[in-house]
Amino acid sequence: MQFQIYWTKINKIIDETPEVKTYLVDIPDGYTWEAGAHIHLGLKGFNEGEKPNRGLVRHMSISTLPRENAIGITTRIREQCSEFKSILRGLQVGDEVAVFKTHCNVPLKRENKNIYLLSSGVGLATFRPIVLEYLERPDNINQIYSLNIDSSKNYLFKNIFTTDHSKNFTAKFVDNRKDYYEAVNNLAADNAGLYYIVGSDEFLKQNIEVLLEKGIQPDQIMLDKRERQLPDFLPINS
């Protein structure tokens, strides 16, 4: 399958926390996406051999909206990290990266329901543009409630993820599993809500287990996974 690869430049690097950085890269002409989308990010050399070097490519959520005039990639880079993250950490403003194959698995649904955004750590980056879009245009959404667990306590995007009752938006951060799953249990009392989950596969499975036990249906659970991957996480409705 052919797809276009765009080489573009990093125009800003933001240190969000001691371990989390946001890379803002120039938007190629005509390139667009929707809130909740992800992109493939390639580093120099990824496509130089006969076969692509998959170690130099990552599937990353876009943490910005097109109107912010940059493709935002927010990621945690620990001291001990992969080759990809190690190279990324060394890049500077002006360096080139490749972007390609944008896709959205978690679009903002406007179905006159309550929406619950459940995330772990830097998974919140996926929800940043979704929340921005909602705050700008809340049509056909009752309310949004964001719940994020981050044991580092360096909570991300606090300027956006701040409770605003006038806009029916609630943001809650917790730093431990007990408080987090207690909150998920309480939220799952809404058996008509839509539940978006972003985090590790283990995190997804634990949340899904809680939601299903409370009677939430698989079609109310939104995962940042391709359709072919969903059966690995959700029971298929017969």
In short:
Helices cover 19% and strands 31% of the residues. By secondary structure, the chain is of the alpha/beta class.
Kindly describe this structure:
By secondary structure, the chain is α/β, with parallel strands linked by helices. It folds into two domains: 99 residues, Beta Barrel (Elongation Factor Tu (Ef-tu), domain 3); 120 residues, Rossmann fold. It contains four helices and eleven strands; from the N terminus they run βββββαββαββαβαβ. It has a six-stranded antiparallel beta sheet, with no helix packed on it. Helix 4 links the parallel strand 10 and strand 11. The radius of gyration is 18 Å and the shape is globular. The model has no long low-confidence stretch (mean pLDDT 93).
Specify the CATH class of the largest domain: Alpha Beta
The shape, in one word, is globular
CATH topology grouping of the largest domain: Rossmann fold
Structural class: alpha/beta
Number of strands: 11
Key features?
single chain, 238 residues, alpha/beta, Elongation Factor Tu (Ef-tu), domain 3, Rossmann fold, 5-stranded parallel beta sheet, 4 helices, 31% strand
Secondary-structure topology with pairs:
Blueprint: E1 6-15, E2 20-25, E3 37-42, E4 57-61, E5 71-76, H1 83-90, E6 96-104, E7 113-120, H2 124-136, E8 141-149, E9 169-174, H3 177-187, E10 194-198, H4 201-213, E11 221-223
Parallel strand pairs: 7-8, 7-10, 8-9, 10-11
Antiparallel strand pairs: 1-2, 1-6, 2-5, 3-4, 3-6
